Amino acid sequence: MTTTNLTWGLGRRKTSTARVRIQPGAGAFFVNGRSLDNFFPVLEHRNRALSPLKLLEGVQYDVFATVDGGGLIGQADAIRLGLAPASVLALRELEAATSAATTVLLALLHARVTRQVTATAQT
């Protein structure tokens, strides 16, 4: 049995409800078993649903959403409102996993910036 790192979120907007599940993967996005482009043919609706994923730059997640009720805009917003807390939780897990690497990188960046400031100040 394999264990996967799933993060769940629930979003509600007007009369629409979305249950959103994200997991590390190739970046697939499915709504009610259909691809995002197929479910939301209008670009504005897709952008509304995808907006929280901008927090997870450089990390690919598979998103599986189940929506019910309302119209397309309400459903897109419900997905966004369900994806936001799931993205925050996934980001926290990612930060916890890479905190040691992040600390080292920030220390190196700080040392480099300090050297540049000192070199320009002496001239």
Summed up:
This protein is α+β, with helices and mostly antiparallel strands and 123 residues long. 50% of the residues lie in helices and 24% in strands. The radius of gyration is 19 Å and the shape is elongated.
Helix tally? Answer: 4
Structural class: alpha+beta
CATH topology description: Ribosomal Protein S5, domain 2
The domain count comes to 1
Strand order of the largest sheet: 1-2-5-3-4
Number of strands: 5
CATH class: Alpha Beta
- Cα distance, first to last residue? 63 Å
Low-confidence spans: 112-117
Helical fraction: 40-55%
Strand content: 15-25%
What can be said about the biggest beta sheet? 5 strands, mixed
Radius of gyration: 19 Å
Q: Which CATH architecture is right? A: 2-Layer Sandwich
Mean pLDDT: 81
Order of helices and strands: EEEEHHEHH
Backbone shape: elongated
